[in-house]
Amino acid sequence: AGGGARPPALPADAQIVDLYAGVGLFGLSLADQEPAARVTFVEGDRVAAAHARRNAGDDPRFRVIGRDVR
Question: For 1-54, where are the E strands, in sequence order?
Fold first, then answer.
């Protein structure tokens, strides 16, 4: 039987930090797996951070930090 390995399920109260988030697609796809999860996107590139904010919309589960955190 084929197919790839499935990732483990996220806990309902998952707190996800997406470092080097780019436009946020990875964190958004993880949040789709567990609707109660909260995601913080961290992106140093201002343009990419603006796209991540737009992709996250007004959803209160998502927070975008648009600065270099080194």
Answer: 15-19, 38-42
Q: pTM for the complete prediction?
A: 0.82
Per residue of the chain (70 residues), give pLDDT as tens: 556 666 678 888 889 999 999 999 999 998 888 889 999 999 999 999 999 999 999 999 999 999 877 7
Unique residue bearing structure tokens 């806990």: 11
Question: How far is Cα 29 from Cα 27, in angstroms, rounded to an integer?
Answer: 5
Q: How far apart are CA 55 and CA 22, in angstroms?
A: 11
Q: Give the C-alpha separation, 70 to 60, whole Å.
A: 26
